[in-house]
Amino acid sequence: MRSGDARALARAISVVENHAPGWIELLKDLFPHTGRALTLGLTGSPGAGKSTLVDQLAKLYRKDDQKVGIIAVDPTSPYTGGAILGDRIRMQDHFSDAGVYIRSMATRGSLGGLARATGDVSLVIDAAGRDIVMVETVGVGQDEVDIVRVADITIVILVPGMGDDVQIIKAGIMEIADIFVINKSDHEGSERVEKEIRALQSLATRQDGWAPPVVKTVATTATGVQELADAITKYRQFLLSKDLLRKRRADNWETRLVEMLRDTLLEKARAQLSARDLSRLAADIAEHKRDPYSVIEEIVGTV
Amino acid sequence: MRSGDARALARAISVVENHAPGWIELLKDLFPHTGRALTLGLTGSPGAGKSTLVDQLAKLYRKDDQKVGIIAVDPTSPYTGGAILGDRIRMQDHFSDAGVYIRSMATRGSLGGLARATGDVSLVIDAAGRDIVMVETVGVGQDEVDIVRVADITIVILVPGMGDDVQIIKAGIMEIADIFVINKSDHEGSERVEKEIRALQSLATRQDGWAPPVVKTVATTATGVQELADAITKYRQFLLSKDLLRKRRADNWETRLVEMLRDTLLEKARAQLSARDLSRLAADIAEHKRDPYSVIEEIVGTV
Question: Which of A213, B44, B47, B130 could bridge across to A163 with cysteines, CB 3.0–4.6 Å?
């Protein structure tokens, strides 16, 4: 896998994603080979053109002979097959280029764990020698914000004409943006979105002193994509010049450790609580034979 | 609180929400008085008009002398003050009517726990003798889907002209809808949204045999709100006639028990791991002095 074989990489990711036997040992072995890649987190509303923008960035990095890994996090719908479908469509574009590896990850029906899984997978891709890892996700919900937290640089993608005030104010992701992109900037309302970003920015100052730039793009025609790449390079240099990249990664690891702890404890708890016990307890609670708070206290007492 | 006092209710909710001393005991005491209210979960994209629709439903239920509790889950932005602002604006409308209690809950910066907190708060409102509890949330992200899982009846709100395919296919909430609402149905594209819902529905059948209806509304003018209330009544009767309400609640409790277990274990773990330890470990990992997987194994070994 470390020699660059894409199939070996795909297999390693599957082991990690499915928690197949040996997955933790694999991650322990790979960890010393990580830390070299630059990780970009890209987030925005559905329909903001994230995938197209990511693909254009990938093409640009490929011209520079950078090896690229892409993790696309898709909220799954059982109706459509979700992530898998997206994978196939996008793979065609880069099919003949082993320098771009795309992996879709689905929001599962289970509890959390997606941010953690995304972090684990990005480590695997990093260890496989990719220079750039891009993590792309829909930017509403705490889960999605957590996912972007694995990134060295976070890019928030907005578009004109989608109830802009709402997308900006409600998204809860303004404060995590290192770079703003206004995609579909040829559409009406682009100036207004920029104004709103500036207005919100004026209300707060960042601790690190960085002023997040606003880059206008039209991803479908690659317009502004070079400018976006330049903004990324500039922020990376800023981070390195102030020794902030190391701090950023340490901060990210604080968040991730707590996540990992939560998920590991949950696995441990679920292992103790069989599906049958759980179903019986839930029925008792629904019928008010027991209260859920005492039930939890009892279970935690035995973990 | 159980005599209907809104201030006492607000205080009880604050105790539960902030995990103030005695919060678990309070929930244990209240639990036997729950199970009477009908809980509605309403979800949709930002800008779909959820709040307006919820307010209109509340007005309708008030005419029938039903006491209403509303929980509005807001993704918080530190820039705008998020939930608190929304609270104040909406309170004005029902200010003089003690029969409508509105509470906003914010998506905190912390890990998960929001679905659990929403569930706890809805129990408190139920115990306070409200007939209808409405939980309203933005419908993207696993967290939001989990929140709606506390509901007896789930209503998914769509709107025309917001990149419809995307909102439907990517939302990941199609499969949880008992009732679909097309709000702003006077806008262009309303027919197309309905067609897409029907097309997706035809791909899957529900285990319980219910065919989720599509109700068209214009919330700002209360158009279609009576039809929505009728659809809610019809599904409630369907659930009761087949003894499915009890099953639904037992299923919900299964999900919630696991959530409660996860959150309780996380609290326990965090209590053991001081902020200083966490910060030191994260720095070690960022500098590759230690690997995170071994760190977690060590911590879990001591919980």
Answer: B47
